[in-house]
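Hi there, hope your week has been kind to you so far. Thanks so much in advance, here it is:
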Amino acid sequence: MTISLIKPSNRVAPAPKPLMSRDCGPAGCEVDWLTSRRHEADGDIEAFTDFSLKMGWGDGLPLVPPTDARVRAFLAQNDRYPDEVIAALPPTQVECTVEKIVINAVMAGAPPESLELLIAAVRAIAEPDFELYGVNATTAPVYPAFIVNGPIRDQLNIPYSYGCTGGAATKATAIGRALRLIMRNVAGQVPGVTSQTTFGSPGRIGGLLIGEWEERSPWAPLAERRGVSGNAVTSFGTMGTMNILDTTSQAASDFLEMIGKSLAYVGANCFSPSMPFCEMMVAINPICAEIIAREIPRIEDVQERLWRFASVPADLLQKRHREQLEAQGRVRKDGRIYATPEPKDMVMFVAGGLGGLHALGLHSFGSSLTQTKPIASPIPADKAQAAE
């Protein structure tokens, strides 16, 4: 059983539209490049935040007013044109331009240097197999989590050590929030309107943007294993974070057994008959990764071992649930139901602090497949014209 057999990946993302004009660069000219509607608003942050909530733009936290000057200054530090269409984002299918990305980035407080990361992240979730429509509109609390590889981690101070999923004081939080504002203001994800999420999640406000601690990983970086070297971002539709603690195990197999069995709870989407397939994402902290790699050097073997433990006996489920899964062919010959179709669908990377033997489980929404995109290297604004 493979995801490719269950769901052939034959959908193609629409190609970005060409620019309307390239006769004026980001350094500025008399042409007004910004096309978004202007609003008269108080420049005070508190007043603007109240205004944004009335207009339906806000998330409840303070917002930086996206004035012409701030938006133009953000653009001036990059070599992108504001009318460039990056993707169409469901459920609204509104075209997400560079200008719209920048406006939301300014409101979130994200730095101008993060633009190429933001663009790559938007492209990743716009891929048809990520199924952003389902992610945005579902009753589940799912949201895109982003894992960053390459030198850009340190350039943007994206955390991958202590407190990487929450608590580390870096502007990665603002970058993640910018992506969440794009989901709200461009894609149109509004609870009770376009999104039927039952409970929602804190991740639908601040997002989740972390790096992989490549230097402490005994395996190749996640993006490289997925075919993209250097600066890259991987998107994963997650239901939230699960901490897994094991202060007892000493052998690699014992750690993987504890992690796998912790992931495999029957109320997870991956064991629901409504989801024909699933991926799972797991972060191993560097100390635990080192212990595992000494005994099991190949990451493929680690995934296979973890996959076997991330399963439940079919008899554990109620009769009706079991019968529906049997009809889908998801009960294997050994009488077990596995979280993912294959070991390769256990998406693993290394991150986290060195204070204890913890692992991080990111449960999947189900039909949203992981996507990895390269992050472009920006051309300095003063050289952008020559590059044309």
User: Anything to note?
Assistant: The first strand starts at residue 85 and ends at 89. The chain has one domain: 40-374. DSSP finds 15 helices and eleven strands in the chain.
